[in-house]
Amino acid sequence: MLTEERKKIILQMLEEDGIVKINQLAEKFDVSIYTIRRDLTDLEKKGLLKKTHGGAVKIQKAMWLPTIEEGEKEAMAEKKAIAKKASEYIEDGDTIFLIGSMITRAIIPYIFNKKITVVTNSIDIGKIVCQYSNIETIIVGGRVKNFKGNILGGRAISDVNAFYFDKSIIPCAGIESKGGVTTSTIDTADFTRAVISSTMENIVVADYRKIGRVTFSKVCDASDIKILITDEKADKNELDKISKKGVSIETAVES
Questions:
Q1: Which of 26, 64, 105, 154 sits most deeply, having the most CB atoms within 10 A of its CB?
Q2: Any bridge partners for residue 174, and if so which?
Q3: What is the pLDDT of residues 151-183, one digit of tens each?
Q4: Using CB atoms within 10 A of its CB, is residue 243 exposed (0-12), middle (13-18) or buried (19+)?
Q5: What's the CA gap between 20 and 40, in Å, rounded?
Q6: Which letter, b or e, does each residue of 68-99 get, where b requires 16 or more Cβ atoms within 10 Å of its Cβ?
Q7: H or E element: which one contains 241?
Q8: Among the listed residues 165, 234, 154, the one whose alpha carbon sits nearest the alpha carbon of residue 198
Q9: Which residues of the chain have pLDDT under 70?
Q10: 78 and 233 in contact (C-beta within 8 Å)?
Q11: CB–CB of 249/230 below 8 Å?
């Protein structure tokens, strides 16, 4: 197989899966790992991918707004594993904030039997957790401003500023050692920043697609968060850089 044809197939695999591994590519094309590394280096120089430890990931645009279908289907096994790991930090008596997302919604089955207070900006999460008598449910006020049914804006931020939370589960669109925690929209970044400021223990939850990514609107520096929970596919080199910012890294394993 010609080099250019091999590179084309590598890019097609990245488009479909978002990530490729050197060992798997070497086996697939029956070439050495050194040959694959050269291919990935050449493609990275052209801005077509980003090399990671042991492979490469798809280049992501800064303004990343997933569709509802993407949110419900992509990396679901990883999201569920991360949600289960995050639930282990939630204890009886805690007041927690759940920012609306697929991961935070996936946490509910693991915490429904705990005696806690849940504050959220998600209509969907509020509707679910309020069914449990042991969970006191508070929904912040304001306008529903995105397709996920999340309440954002100045009124919601004002509500958050009036509370203090033991723990908050913070989803994001990207986290990177230099770029920090980022989201796709200004409103979400402003709201998330307010939640972090009102919380004693901030726990960022991000599947492998978000690790090393920088999106449109910055929330905070990586050093401003305490814990990052991700999955086994995450870029180990980037995680090492994030940990050097004082962040405790937890890796969720799929059951």
A1: 105
A2: 182
A3: 999 999 999 999 999 999 999 999 999 889 999
A4: middle
A5: 10
A6: eeebeeebeebbbbbbbbbbebbeeebbbbbb
A7: helix 236-243
A8: 165
A9: 59-73, 146-147
A10: yes
A11: yes
